[in-house]
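Job type: complex structure
Entries:
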Amino acid sequence: MVDARGMVRRRLGLRLWLSGGWLVLLALAALLAPWIAPHNPLEQDLFTSRLPPFWMAGAEPGYWLGTDSLGRDVLSRIIHGARVALIVALIAGTATMLIGATLGLIAGYYRGWADMVISRLIDIWMAFPPVLFAILLIAVLGTGLTSVIIAIVVIDWTRFARVVRAEAMAQGAMDYVASAQVAGQRRLGIMLREILPNVLPTIGVLLTLEMGIAVIVEAILSFVNLSISSDDPTWGGMIAEGRTALHRSWWVLVFPLIALFLTVLSFSQLGEGLKDRFDPVLR
Amino acid sequence: MSAYLSIRNLSAVLKGAPKGTPRLLRSVSLDVAAGEVRGLVGESGAGKSMIGKAVLGILPRAVQVIEGEIWLDGVDLLRMTPSERRRRIGASAALIPQDPMTALNPSRRIGPQITDRLVDILGWTRADAEARARELLDEVRIPDPARVMRSYPHELSGGMRQRVLIASAFAAEPKMIVADEPTTALDVTVQKQILRLIAQMQARHGTALLFVTHDLGVVSKVCDTLSVLYAGKVVEDTRVRDFFAAPGHAYSAALLAATPKYTDPDAGLNPVPAAVIEAVQAEVAAAEAAWRKGGAHG
């Protein structure tokens, strides 16, 4: 019994360590980008264009992951691109959580007309194709980081609202809520003090998932050139540029794709790992 | 009115049900005097829990009270505004719930779950409330109350949790407690202890207790008076002593006869006879028809 539990702990530990480690590394890279990036990510040099990564013939020292068709260093651009990715993940993820979870909590616990309104809104939202919706929103708001963040929040709040609503409904039917009600607690107090702590692990997992999704949405928008100005390096933008010269310089596309993949995977694994650690029911 | 709790002609229906749908509670009346233990028995779905929930103001959203009065300590709860009722119930009534596994919030420590009401509704200081909680936990014979108050519910066994819930129910010295099948979810060996504990606490604190159960054996041990419910209607209201001597209603008698006996394991089971069911159903239907004719209830 004790041994089995110990083994489970270790396995979870590894998942948390790997995903958390990658995200910490990424955060450091983003924070320290101007100092640790080997080159200026915007600097073009046609004499060093399409250099392959370090292990291939014809690689130049100092250009670890090669260069693109304009001679810009891929590693430096990935490091700088991490800034946009992480800013979007943190701000858009958190804002989406605050709005979506609040509405979901109100709908799931108060029910009645509030639930009617919020649930119908969710239904309407779900009927829109999300990427199209995002492109439409950016077209209205104009490009730029703020627009990207607003677009993600506007599109994705339903993800939190739906799940949190269902969870709050389930918790609301528990006897401890009835007891709190008999004890004379106000509805708002019960929602915040009794329901919210039990929904929090779910919200946490959703938040990390949402951060991963925000990174993907930002990449999609920069892929179609609707994110921030095209001069600044973004992973989606790099993938779009790399696509055109895939047969001659695959590394321009593949490395930012790997960074994107690892980041999104890490966010979701981090969420799962934290849930296993902190969910009071599983604890 | 001498009774502490007095329910008069309470009728409830399913919200949004078409006209003519049978009521869930059919003109229920019962009294519980201070210090009295009234048993509320009936089959599943007879409405016994619903009466308790109506008293405590925690009826499910889908249930609507359409008439009647619930007098608690001289005021009619159904004539109060929701916030007045909330404070009134919070200050004078409590619940001992059925399932100790879901009746404590899993993500909060035990201590605050007991002291919340004392601090928020009765205005005690936190230190006083905690001292009181320790005292009560000690009274329900929980070892090391201070440690238990710092624990989370998952660290306690089912029997311990039910003790905590009993302590919590008595903490604010309510004059009225509704116990909703408090031993059903427990292990048989623990049931007896908990039952004895509730009876002791009730006697010591002089609380009026509405005891919802389907177990006539439990009724014979803890209750003074008894209401037998069938399909939302009270078919018998009697003293427990009289009931076990001679049930006043054919249905009650059949229910009593259906109780399995430890002393005679070979006797087999005595289900309530079909004729008795038909008779009581006819009685309920007749009462329903009379009720419809009496008022303009649609």
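Summary: Confidence is low (pLDDT under 50) at residues 1-8 of chain A. Residues 50 and 68 of chain A are 5 Å apart (CA to CA).
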